[in-house]
Amino acid sequence: MKLKIFGTDITVSFLFCAILCILMLSDRTGFIAPMLIAIFIHELGHLAVMKYFGCAPSEIKLIPGSIRIISPVCEDKNSVIISLSGPILNVLVFAVVYFSSQILGVNYYLDFAFINLVYGVFNLLPFYSLDGGSILEEIIGSKIGEINGRKIIKIITLAGSLLFLTAFIVFAVKGSVNYSVLAISLYLILSVFIKL
Questions:
Q1: Residues 6 and 81 in one domain
Q2: 86 and 131 Cβ atoms separated by less than 8 Å
Q3: Structural domain of residue 160, as residue ranges?
C-alpha cells in the first residue's frame, strides 16, 4: 500500500500490516499499542530533526522489523544529531509522563513511560540498524573509512546477538523462556546480513 503525506511517499508492506494485525489481536499484555506509539514517537523525533536540517525524507517504508526512512544525504555533522533525536524524544516522553504521573498520583501511564525509556535506550545500543550503531559507525567511519567502520559495527552486532542468544538459552535452561530476547538476537543477526 502506498500513500503520500506532505510530499513524502509512505510504503506499507502487506507483511507489515499482517504482522501488526496478528500482534494486536493476540496481545494479552496490553503492551503492543503503547509500544507502537513509542516507535511512532521515536521516528517522529528523527523526522522533525531531518526536516530542521533540510533533509526531510522522500520516502518512508514500513516493513516487518523496521521503519526505513529514505532521504537526501544529510551533512555528516548532522547525522549523529539525527540518530540521537529519536532516542532523546523517547527519553523526554518518559520523563514527562513519569513525573506527571508522580505529581498527579496517576500510575496508569507508567507502563507507557517505561516502554519509551526502554525503547529509547535500546536504540542507543551500538548495533547495526539501531541508532547507536549508526552513531558509532559515523564516528569510527570518520577515522578509518566508511566501509571499515561498517565492518566493525557488524562484528559488534554479531557479538551482541550472541550475547542475547546466550541469555535466551541460559534463561530457557533455568525454566524462564523469554522470546523477546530470542527475537532481539535474531533481528540483530538478520540486520547484519539483510538490509532490514
A1: yes
A2: yes
A3: 126-196
